[in-house]
Amino acid sequence: MIEKYIAPDLSAWTGRVDSTTNYDAFRWHQWILPLDLNAPSIILPEFKAGVAILGFSSDEGVRRNLGRTGAAKGPNSIRKELCGLPCCFTQDFRLFDAGNIHCDDGNLEASQEALSLAVALLKNLGLFPIVLGGGHEVAYGDYKGLMRNNKYPGIINFDAHFDIRPYPEFGTSGTMFRQIYDDLNRIDKAFNYFAIGIQKRGNTVDLFKTAEAMGAEYLMAKDIGEGDLTDAMTKLDAYLIKQDEIYLTICTDVFSSAFAPGVSATQPLGLQPERILRFFKHIFRTGKVVLFDIAEVSPRFDNDNITANLAATFIFSAINSLAHQHHLAV
Length: 330
Known about the structure:
Blueprint: E1 5-6, H1 28-31, E2 33-34, E3 49-57, H2 60-64, H3 74-82, E4 93-102, H4 108-124, E5 128-133, H5 138-148, E6 154-158, H6 176-186, E7 193-198, H7 205-214, E8 217-220, H8 221-224, H9 230-240, E9 246-251, H10 273-284, E10 289-295, H11 306-325
Parallel strand pairs: 2-4, 3-4, 3-5, 5-10, 6-7, 6-9, 7-8, 9-10
Antiparallel strand pairs: 1-4
C-alpha cells in the first residue's frame, strides 16, 4: 500500500470531442485510462507501449528552500493542458493517469518515499513514468524509485540551478542531486550528472566548485542561449554515449520568464523553449530515457496557463518520441 497517494480522478480530463468512434479524431482526454496504484489487483489492457502520468503535489521542498510556494497545484494544472492534445499514436500505445502523491503535512521525506514506491511499481508494470511536479524535490523520489529496481541511470537536468546544496538538517528543492550523489556513493555507484542551462547568477562559487568535485558536467545558459549549438551538442553527445540509461528532468525555471512566468524562481534571462526542445528531442531519440519529470510549475504565478501549457508541450514531445521508438506513431 502506497501512503500519501490519491487515486486518479478522470473528471478533470475533459475537452472538445470531434468523434466518439473515429480514433484518428481522438484527443488525450478520450484515450486516457485510470490506474489506481493501490488497487488490490492491477489488470492493464494489452499494449505494446504505455505511459503513466503521475503527479507529485508538493512544494514543501520549495518552502524549505525559501522559495515561492504554489507548485503543489502544478500537476492538475498541467493535466488540464494535456486534455486537448491529439492522439498521434496508434491504439497499441496506451495512456494512463496514475493519480497523485501528495505532501500536505510537511513530511517531504515520507512523500518522496511514497513517490519512489509508485515509480518502481510503474516500471514493474512495463510503463514509462512521466511525473508532474510539484517542486523539483520530485527528483529525489523519482531517482530513488529507479534505484529500487537496481537502476542507476545518468541524470540530465535542464535547470538554472545545480541543486547540489548541502543539507545538514533536511532536503529541499535545492539539494536533490547532492542527496542522490551521496546515496550512490554509499553503494559505490557512479554519479553521472549533466546540467543544461546553468545560470551564473543563480549559483554560488562554492556550488560550481562542488559540481567540479562531483565530476558533474554542465552547459551554461549563456553558451546555448543564441548562436550555433554544434559545440554544445558535441559535449552532450560525449556524455550520452557513455550512458546506458538516462533520467531526464526539467525545472521550468530554466526558461525565460517571458515563456514561463509561473515558476518558483523566475529567470528574466532564461532560455527560449525552442532551443531547449532541440536538446530534449535529441536526448529522447537515443532511446535511453527511462523516466521524465517536469517540475516547479506554479499556477498561482502563471499567466493564462502559459507555463502549464509549455510543460504540456514537452510532455507531448516526449510521448511522440516514445511512440516513434516503438513504431507506434501516426
